[in-house]
Automatic annotation (TrEMBL):
Residues 9-246 form the Carbohydrate kinase FGGY N-terminal domain. The gene is xylB. Keywords: ATP-binding, Carbohydrate metabolism, Kinase, Nucleotide-binding, Transferase, Xylose metabolism. Catalyzes the phosphorylation of D-xylulose to D-xylulose 5-phosphate. This is Xylulose kinase. InterPro entries: ATPase_NBD, Carb_kinase_FGGY, Carb_kinase_FGGY_CS, FGGY_C, FGGY_Carb_Kinase, FGGY_N, Xylulokinase. The record marks 13 as: Important for activity. CDD domains: ASKHA_NBD_FGGY_BaXK-like. The lineage of its organism: Bacteria, Bacillati, Actinomycetota, Actinomycetes, Kitasatosporales. Belongs to the FGGY kinase family.
Length: 481
């Protein structure tokens, strides 16, 4: 038996690039074991992953945790948002999942927005104006391009629902992740049958939305898994909503997450509805809201630029007027799904290190411009920005965010906030506590604060200028997406 003070809980982060598992002492928040296994994502025209790979990665990561997982009393799965998982009558994937960063459904998104009455109608009904990331547009793409696959689909799941379903044998989801589908009405907190009918999706194919704090099920008998029979399974949620739980986030505190996606968000008491579409009006996993903006190009795009330049990711040099919009995957914020990367201002004396800094600046610019729209009027605009995700470990990322935000930046010492949030949710179903309160008790947000420096308005304005001058080029795209 472990020397833990309380029951053990397991938190899972099944994100784009890998699955991470933490076994946590529910009393203290101490991580007693951890595991990690990678995923592969297709390259080329789309972004797809085989859901079975997520399950294999989960089993591998759990095995790395040894006996600790076996002792756990509860488990919860957080996952990358929006992905379309289509299952046949035996629960097997009909085809690989279409991921959040697959932009092929941009034409379907444009059409759906128009057909339902425009951006304002969508924002009022679902909280968001769906772009190519949203599940509803992916289903519309599938129905149009692969009607046979759509016809063979007996169940539609999000990534976290798929894994939770394999644990429990039941079809469940939660409000946080459901709010990223485009077919969940945030105004009524229920599936929107008119939207579902419009894309020809039978509501019976969708999972039940489990209430915050409700148990989703228990781990079914399986020799694949190191859990004991009867281990409780919490509702789980999308990865950003899980990180909000993992930070014990209170309304108005801004978070900037640097991972495969870049995200900015804050917990809000008011239901968001931004008709410009920049801010997605997600629900959080507790009963509040999580206005959020997301970019497709963050750590992977900047790492790709560093690799092209043959530089280490930290080998930046202060910029002198060169602008790089790192939209290698097309972009979601700003909404330019067909765009590619764009370089402006190159001179004979521009160094490789300055080009790399320009890539960081371009990635952070999109997130900070969106942050002003994410925060409501009451938010304290001088409070530290919480910086999380894999990129938060990097000095160049930290200093870029600090310089372009002009705000203090707090870097939580706890590395895996999504998995910790899932663990806090698992602890919550055991004890009846609010998961955010559990995370605050665990002091997960503690970490050094980098003091504010003067905001680099010149760089922000230069990037905004290039972005608006290059709009026709960026909107036209390269034709390769
Ligand atoms: N020490 C570091 N410095 C800068 N970036 C890092 C560091 N460690 C990891 N990363 C970045 O973090 C990214 C992964 O972040 P993570 O939040 O785990 O991704 P995701 O959850 O989206 O799969 C990698 O693409 C890598 O660029
Ligand atoms: O699409 C969004 C948010 O709307 C992304 O944030 C995904 O949820 C993927 O997350 P990571 O794998 O980058 O953590």
């Amino acid at each position: 038996m472990s020397a833990a003070e309380g029951p053990l809980v397991v938190g899972v982060d099944s994100s784009t690039q890998s699955t991470k598992v933490l076994v946590v002492d529910a009393a203290t928040g101490q991580v007693v074991a951890s595991g990690q296994a990678p995923h592969t994502v297709s390259s080329g025209v789309g972004r797809e992953s085989d859901p079975r790979q997520w399950w294999d990665a989960l089993c591998t990561a759990l095995r790395q945790c040894g006996d600790a997982a076996h002792e756990a009393a509860a488990v919860s799965v957080a996952g990358q948002q929006h992905g379309l998982v289509t299952l046949d009558g035996h629960g097997e994937p009909v085809r690989p999942a279409l991921l959040w960063n697959d932009v092929r459904s941009a034409p379907q998104a444009r059409r759906l927005v128009e057909e339902l009455g425009g951006p304002k109608t969508w924002a009022e009904r679902t909280g968001s104006v769906p772009g190519a990331s949203f599940t509803v547009t992916k289903w519309a793409w599938l129905a149009e391009h692969e009607p046979e696959a759509a016809r063979s689909t007996a169940a539609v799941r999000l990534p976290h629902d798929y894994l939770t379903g394999l644990l429990t044998g039941l079809g469940t989801t939660d409000r946080g992740d459901a709010s990223g589908t485009g077919w969940w009405a945030s105004a009524t907190e229920a599936y929107d049958e008119e939207i579902l009918a419009r894309v020809g999706l039978d509501p019976a194919l969708l999972p039940r939305v489990v209430r915050p704090g409700e148990v989703a099920g228990t781990v079914r008998d399986s020799h694949e898994l190191p859990f004991s029979k009867g281990t409780l399974v919490a509702p789980g949620t999308g990865d950003n909503a899980a990180a909000a739980l993992g930070l014990g986030l209170r309304p108005g505190t801004p978070v900037l997450s640097l991972g495969t996606s870049g995200t900015v968000y804050a917990v809000a008491r008011q239901r968001p509805a931004d008709p410009s579409g920049t801010v997605a009006g997600f629900a959080d996993a507790r009963g509040d809201w999580l206005p959020l903006a997301c970019t497709l190009n963050c750590t992977l795009a900047v790492d790709r630029v560093a690799a092209l330049l043959g530089l280490d990711r930290e080998a930046v040099e202060p910029g002198t007027g060169v602008t790089l919009l790192p939209y290698l995957d097309g972009e979601r914020t700003p909404n330019l799904p067909g765009a590619s990367g764009l370089l402006h201002g190159l001179r004979h004396d521009t160094t490789a290190g300055q080009l790399l800094q320009a890539a960081y600046d371009g990635a952070v610019h999109s997130l900070l411009r969106a942050l002003d729209l994410v925060l409501d009027q009451d938010a304290d605009r001088t409070a530290p920005l919480l910086l999380i995700g894999g990129g938060a470990r990097g000095t160049a990322w930290q200093q870029t965010v600090r310089r372009l935000s002009g705000r203090p930046v707090q870097v939580p010492r706890a590395g895996e906030l999504v998995a910790l949030g899932a663990a806090a949710q698992a602890a919550g179903v055991l004890t009846g506590e609010d998961p955010a309160a559990v995370a605050r008790r665990w002091r997960t947000a503690d970490g050094p604060v980098l003091e504010a420096v003067e905001r680099d308005e010149e760089t922000l304005n230069r990037i905004s200028g290039v972005l608006s001058d290059a709009a026709p080029l960026l909107e036209r795209g390269t034709g390769s997406h």
